């Protein structure tokens, strides 16, 4: 029996805060993406709600091939553009929630 080959390393996609900001702006805000602070609280501003979380998660899967585990679909991971990027990067690297 031949030895097993090691699994080919999978590349973790580069998740862009600018692309996330553009998506959030285009779908949830009326402002320009350039003006969206990556730490702006999207939940407190009412920009994203629980349905918005699912919409962003579906976009992340389509755009980057990143599937967020159920535990990562919590509102805290969608509080800001930066939080969305960090959650997507953890999922892409095989990690779960923080």
UniProtKB/TrEMBL annotation:
The Carrier domain extends over 15-92
Q: What is this protein called?
A: Carrier domain-containing protein
């Amino acid at each position: 029996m031949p030895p097993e080959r090691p699994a080919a390393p999978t590349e973790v996609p580069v998740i862009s805060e600018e692309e996330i900001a553009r998506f959030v702006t285009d779908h949830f805000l009326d402002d320009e993406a350039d003006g969206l602070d990556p730490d702006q609280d999207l939940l407190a501003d009412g920009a994203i709600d629980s349905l918005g979380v699912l919409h962003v998660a579906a976009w992340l899967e389509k755009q980057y091939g990143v599937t967020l585990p159920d535990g990562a679909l919590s509102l805290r991971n969608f509080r800001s553009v930066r939080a969305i990027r960090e959650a997507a990067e953890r999922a892409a690297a095989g990690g779960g929630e923080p």
